[in-house]
Amino acid sequence: MYAASVSHGDDAIGQLVTALEKSGQRENTLIVFTSDNGGQKDYASKTDYEGKHGPYATLGDNHPLRGWKTELYEGGIRVPAIVSWKGRLTAGVVDHPLSYLDWFPTIGKLAGVEMAAEWNLEGRDVWPLLSRKGKAPADPTLYWNVGKTTAIMEGPLKLIVPGAKGANPELYDVVADPTEKRNLATEKPETVTALRKKLDAQRKLDP
Fold it and tell me: Would the pTM of this model clear 0.85, i.e. be above it?
């Protein structure tokens, strides 16, 4: 069923692209394809699909990244994204952190929408990164809250604060150590303190 879903998605996207080609709108359309989270480790349900499928001990594969869907290691939050605009974008790789928060201001700007300051948007216009034209925006400070665990990333450093009582924060350099094998928290206590203050300030903004 999972493989069929992937195959169906691939076929449906192909139909959309074909429709754009036939209607003459392919060169007037920006296509963004991205995942919402990393792969799921396993699967078991007595109700989904009427309980006909599963359990599956292995479902996803985020190798070589650490972690799974709902976790804040890179395997749970670093996802693939493909951006295509025929005639406007050339093939290449964007090696900068982007967020879902960036898509609204980016697409809005391309559509001629004025981004009002009172909207307090957290995202950025990342078209200069995609097109490799103009001044690229600074890398953002990113924040996650999945209920029991929170995290903040500034530059290459990501602080993960587990919600479990007595659990210690973890600090990783996700550029030098993308598989998050080396916890730097004890080596860089000042960085942990500084990032934790920023994390606490961000949490206060949550509804």
Answer: yes
